[in-house]
Amino acid sequence: MASTLCNYLPELLCKFPAIDQTLMRGVRKTVDDSFKSFVRAYGNVIDALTTPLQHFLNGLESLFVNTPWFIILAVMVLVVYFASRNMRIVAVTVIGMLFIGLVGLWEDTMITLAIVTVSTLLAIVIGIPIGILMARSDRAQSVVNPILDVMQTLPSFVYLIPVVMIFGIGKVPGVIAVVIYAVPPMIRLTNLGIRLVDREVLEAADAFGSSPGQKLMNVQIPLALPTVMAGINQTIMMSLAMVVVASMIGVGGLGKNVLQAISNQFLTIGFLNGFALVAIAIIFDRTSQAYGKRLQRHTEVVHG
Amino acid sequence: MKKLLAATLFAAGIYAAAGSAQAAECGDVSIAEMNWASAGVAAYVDKIILESGYGCTVTVVTGDTMPTFASMNEKGQPDIAPEFWVNAVRTALDQAIAEGRLIQAAPLLSDGGVEGWWIPKFIADEHPDIKTVEDALKHPELFPAPEDPSKGAVTNCPSGWNCQVSTANLYKALGAKDKGFELVDTGSAAGLDGSIANAFENKKGWLGYYWAPTAILGKYEMVKLSFGVDHDKANWDACTAVPDCPDPKVNAYPVSDVYTVVTKGFAEKAGVAMDYVKTRKWDNATVGKVLAWMEENQGTNEDGAKHFLETYPEMWTTWVAPEVAEKVKAAL
């Protein structure tokens, strides 16, 4: 039907007048070449800048991998307990980690944990200030929001390639790719949490003569903390999801095994590694959620 | 009434005959477009020739050696894998051929696929003493590892490919670890290509697994190092290609067999095109030229295929009957 319609219409209306092929090729070539010359010119500078991060990552990974397993497990149990104060979550942690150890994925899990830890910390350090800035200025919000939209919808493979060109392969580009993917929810939820702080509370703070800085530190951020915690929780989850994709540029750990299993149709290995990731995700998620809940205790106080 | 019935039957007969005639011509064909350049171009060359020359309806599906093989073997989809490196699945493929599920057609790359350990040409020019892999392993400082520049790196092939196993075994056999080298996993083809591009753009050394014909080798000049021994097939099959082989020996890579593999279903529905997939093959030099042109012009696989058909008619017209060649030329 639609094709017969085209027989009666001028071609311009039926076939979209695309830009000439040669011109497009020229544009693509120019962009690629200028990107390459940028890499050539600043390669050494970039290497020097990322060296500290590289050392930190290598150090943390070897710390996680080389520490005896029972110490790591004990530390995890303590962290989980003090964050959640919930014995059920502690039990889940122990069972999950024992499962991971029993199926022989302990070392890979530690490598993945190191990457996720660094990525999450970076995302928090980058995300919270930007979120605060967005909350304090509508103009900043209108500039940052579209950027976040692009970051969240751009297929990750698109920026993996330039990241490899610039930083080579390994943990540093991996962390950078993971942070690009995982930072938007942190920024968004920080912004949202601060904006949702009750107007009346702020008026009260004004009435007591707080400076803007005091208002932010003593009123807005504490009241926004549950939402910020939700942001941290989302960031952790997205980091874990991205770790598998990051293994495509030479990040080791569970993601590498998943990738290998995919290309070789090893169903069991794929599922085991996938479940190991799920186990870590559940531990992180329940712990950070329980912590967020505990921060919200004040909201549950019933005023008589 | 009778007349009507007869007419109906007659019409139905004509219809059925027409239908079967069309089926004999060619049907819906799916071609696997593997995720490396030479195979991608081959897929589109096939697409253009089958569509315009034989009147097939062609869909191109993205693929990769292992998943595509599994799908062809289990499901009979896609119909054609134009450039299939059969060494990776020799046993399973032989079984599938014996059971009549798959058919091995022409050796697409007439020279076969060349695999090995390569270094950039600028390093080879600066250090003419480096001729073999052993020579390269004396200089870890020339090939800094991406994560720890104090060590050298042997860059491994992507996770899950067959060459990952053989490269790891050769790394072990050569004792590269004690010579200050680590084996670096690249994860994916994109990671491997990226690491080479990164090394060339930053004028750093690079040592690792790669293969020809490829766009990267058309774009960045690299030199293949000798392993100093001949290919020992028995030991290769028994140990070098086996994961976790206890004591691997130094061995040279075999020249890989690269064939077109088609499903039984394809042979049934596109019988007219069977001769074509059984005869067409090209050599690495031509493929290299086409891939280099694509790099140069930022062409897609389809552009590369068109460029090939326009530039090398003397090659591809020998693959098909003259009237088919005319149709393809008209379509270009």
Description:
The complex is a heterodimer of chains A (304) and B (332). By secondary structure, chain A is mainly alpha-helical. Chain A has one domain (33-303): Orthogonal Bundle (MetI-like fold), CATH 1.10.3720. Chain A is 85% helix and 0% strand. In chain A, helix 12 runs antiparallel to helix 13 (267-295). The relative contact order of chain A is 0.11. Chain B is of the alpha/beta class. Chain B folds into two domains: 28-111 and 257-330, D-Maltodextrin-Binding Protein, domain 2 (3-Layer(aba) Sandwich); 113-255, D-Maltodextrin-Binding Protein, domain 2 (3-Layer(aba) Sandwich), CATH 3.40.190.100. Helices cover 50% and strands 16% of the residues of chain B. Chain B contains 16 helices and ten strands. Chain B has helices at residues 2-25, 37-54, 65-75, 90-98, 121-126, 133-137, 162-173, 189-201, 215-219, 233-240, 264-269, 271-279, 284-297, 301-311, 313-316, 322-331; strands spanning 28-34, 57-63, 80-85, 102-104, 114-120, 152-155, 181-184, 208-212, 222-224, 258-263. In chain B, the strands form four sheets. A three-stranded antiparallel sheet of chain B has the order 3-10-4. A three-stranded antiparallel sheet of chain B has the order 8-5-9. Chain B has a two-stranded parallel ribbon with strand order 1-2. In chain B, strand 1 (28-34), helix 2 (37-54) and strand 2 (57-63) form a beta-alpha-beta unit. In chain B, helix 2 (37-54) crosses helix 14, helix 2 packs across helix 16 and helix 13 (284-297) packs across helix 14. Chain B is globular, with a radius of gyration of 24 Å. Mean pLDDT of chain B is 87; it is low at 11-24. The chains are: A mainly alpha (304), B alpha/beta (332). The A-B interface holds A 25, 28-29, 32, 36, 39-40, 43-44, 47, 54, 58, 157, 160-161, 164-172, 247-252, 256, 259-265 and B 64-67, 70, 146-148, 158-161, 164, 184-188, 190-191, 194-195, 197-199, 201-202, 297-299.
Can you describe this structure in just a few lines?
Chain B: This is ABC transporter substrate-binding protein. The complex is a heterodimer of chains A (304) and B (332). Chain A is built from 14 helices and no strands.
